[in-house]
Design goal:
Elements: H1 3-14, E1 28-32, E2 39-41, E3 44-46, H2 50-59, E4 64-68, E5 84-85, H3 87-104, H4 106-128, E6 132-135, H5 140-148, E7 153-156, H6 169-172, E8 183-186, H7 189-199, E9 205-208, H8 212-218, H9 225-230, E10 243-247, H10 252-256, H11 268-276, E11 281-285, H12 288-291, H13 296-307, E12 313-314, H14 316-320, H15 323-327, E13 332-335, H16 340-345, E14 351-353, H17 369-374, E15 377-379, H18 384-394, H19 410-417
Parallel strand pairs: 1-4, 1-6, 4-5, 6-7, 7-8, 8-9, 10-11, 10-13, 11-12, 13-14, 14-15
Antiparallel strand pairs: 2-3
Helix pairs in contact: 3-4, 4-5
Length: about 425
């Protein structure tokens, strides 16, 4: 996206603002961004993780307020839980800080913005008076404001929590302790182990709370109107062939492949394997950020150009189907470095990691160390022969069709215990 387009996109959402004085008190504040909303449920943006917490609160007759963090656009009736937005307040601070740096210097400008953002979050929390805040990557300023008001604030895991992975370990360990969350709500014991290696020394609790989204699919409840409707989706392929999921990520070029020829979506070796391997079904899943990006047309143009003529390759439904449902009929998973590796492991689905920086001795060797040590994930060279050998060796290894044995009601139990 060009700089001009970024400015236009920012300005188009910057004017959105609700009234803090009109906020009502609530037991729990939930924060999330539009980018966390990977599902459209009845034409509303729906965050599988954050809105699963919302549904648990509704089930327990507890009041809540959802806040869409800057610079989201979905608010009110356009998004599940009727989230509130305060973009204009944060934009005004950012704009003023930008101009101030020419007069008071960059460091003083950053300090100005930091303190002003804390003031906004403090004003919101004082109006709502929550007993608890749960967010997906909650802002440091929000963490500071909540802790200053003695309100516990928890980061709901949304990605890999290994020590070298941004935005968790790398970002939080660079943040002063007063601006870190009270704790991290991890999906499973493996994530807890990874987070524990760096969180405790920064006064961040590590809690194995479970994954509130996947728990709903382990044994679906007919009263769960969201999951019941989503489960009615038909699987795209039903032809008896093995199905391989390829999960994409956003900003791969900028993060890992700046100085390497890379199309920004799929490495050339995997692309060639998909084209040549017509004996498999291929599901290509776009990242939620890609789905809501202004560059979505570039990604879809690439997929259409390269795979559009193949009836065994699909990406539209693969990108909109809930992951717990999609994984129930997938046999293998291939990715650069997506956290879906962890989720696939819950179904005993082998994953191939193609990011060379995850290889032993490389910069991000700690990513997915739990899954790699168990043998359910493996880092491969970006090589067609290596990929084909791995596929042929592992395509019969999946043993689970569902999440039986997955910890049930774990997150709900944690939530209830937080109010005892």
């Amino acid at each position: 996206m060009t700089f001009a387009k970024k400015i236009i996109k920012l300005v188009s959402s910057a004017y959105l603002c609700d009234s803090i004085s009109a906020l009502q008190t609530a037991d729990v504040v939930i924060t999330r961004h539009d980018a966390d909303c990977g599902i459209n449920f009845k034409d509303k943006l729906y965050s599988p993780l954050a809105d699963s917490v919302v549904d648990l609160l509704i089930k327990q007759n507890m009041s809540f307020l959802t806040l869409a963090t800057p610079y989201s656009k979905g608010r009110g009736h356009s998004a599940y839980g009727n989230p509130k937005i305060f973009n204009c307040r944060f934009f005004a601070i950012a704009l003023m800080g930008h101009f101030l740096k020419f007069f008071i210097g960059k460091e003083s400008s950053i300090e100005y913005r930091y303190k002003k953002r804390i003031n906004i979050w403090t004003e919101i929390l004082e109006a709502v008076k929550p007993q608890l805040v749960i967010g997906i990557h909650p802002d440091p300023e929000l963490c500071f404001a909540a802790k200053n008001l003695s309100i516990p604030i928890y980061d709901l895991q949304h990605g890999v929590v290994a020590v070298n992975n941004w935005p968790y370990a790398k970002k939080l360990t660079e943040t002063i302790t007063t601006a870190t969350p009270t704790g991290i709500l991890c999906w499973d014991e493996g994530s807890c182990k990874a987070a524990s290696s760096w969180a405790f020394e920064h006064d961040i609790k590590v809690i194995s709370a479970g994954n509130p989204w996947y728990e709903r699919f382990a044994i679906p409840n007919e009263k769960d109107h969201v999951v019941t409707e989503l489960l009615s989706k038909k699987r795209h392929f039903n032809n008896g062939r093995k199905t391989i999921l390829v999960s994409l990520q956003w900003e791969l070029k900028g993060l890992y492949y700046k100085d390497i020829e890379f199309n920004g979506f799929i490495c050339e070796q995997l692309q060639n394997v998909i084209i040549a391997s017509t004996q498999f079904n291929w599901l290509i899943r776009l990242h939620p950020v890609q789905l809501r990006s202004d560059n979505i047309s570039d990604c879809k143009d690439y997929l259409d150009k390269v795979f559009g003529s193949f009836d065994n390759v699909e990406w539209e439904e693969a990108s909109s189907t809930p992951l717990p449902l999609l994984l129930s009929y997938v046999d293998l998973h291939i990715t650069d470095s997506s956290s879906i590796v962890t989720e696939a492991a819950w179904f005993n689905i082998p994953s191939a990691l193609l990011n060379p920086l995850i290889a032993p001795g490389a910069r991000y060797q700690d990513l997915f160390s739990e899954e790699i040590s168990r043998g359910i994930a493996k880092c491969l060279k970006q090589d067609e022969t290596a990929l084909l050998e791995w596929i042929n060796e592992n395509c019969e290894k999946k043993t689970a069709e569902n999440l039986n044995g997955f910890s049930l009601n774990s997150f709900e139990n944690w939530l209830q215990s937080s109010f005892r």
